[in-house]
Fold this sequence. Notes:
- α3 links the parallel β4 and β5.
- The protein has 4 helices and 9 strands.
- It has a single domain, classed as Rossmann fold (3-Layer(aba) Sandwich).
- Strands 3-2-1-4-5-9-8 form a 7-stranded mixed beta sheet, with helices on one face. It has a two-stranded antiparallel ribbon with strand order 6-7.
- It is an alpha/beta fold and 180 residues long.
- Bound molecules: S-adenosylmethionine (SAM).
Amino acid sequence: MNEKWDTNDSFSYKRMYKRHPSIWKFVNSFIKDENITSVLDVGCGMHQLYQFSGDWAGIDVNPKIQKDKIIKADFLKYSFDRKFDMVLIMGVVEHYLCEHLKQFIEKSLEVNPKYVLIGLFGGIKEKGHRRKTIVGRHRVYSLTEYGKDTFENIFKELGIKDFQIKELSKKDVVIIVRRK
Ligand SMILES: C[S@@+](CC[C@H](N)C(=O)[O-])C[C@H]1O[C@@H](n2cnc3c(N)ncnc32)[C@H](O)[C@@H]1O
């Protein structure tokens, strides 16, 4: 990751949430439809999943987030001692290089979820992947734009057959992994 997450800027976090309503609408319906009772929210930021009244745990590497129920740690290095119905990874993997994507997926499987949902806030390409430079108002940073084939190859390597790449809009994508 080329970014340092050390802000307690709740405005930026809220803006992120508002920019991707279709993703959050989808996640909330998914939780209801699939009767999800426990969620591990990876890179949860300011706890966007506020509507979920069930068993929720967030993990975020940003030490400045001031919220209850959040484990302040690097997900890739943390050892979990319990299971979750669903792992949610929204707007996180784009900040990493492609080679880390598999680590996020493998790590998610450790909590034995029925579902893993990965949200991409910048769309998905058909093939290949590339690093994009974003010139924001306050900073310049890089994001990885993934290709569908990147996910397909990783899922094949991990023996995951039941997955779906759902493009909710040009920018908002959710990848759903279902495990029996
Ligand atoms: C773009 S924000 C997304 C926040 C939230 N998921 C949302 O959708 O609004 C990415 C978040 O991922 C967190 N993050 C990045 N790498 C992480 C890691 N290895 N472990 C835990 N959190 C991480 C950052 O601190 C940041 O809060």
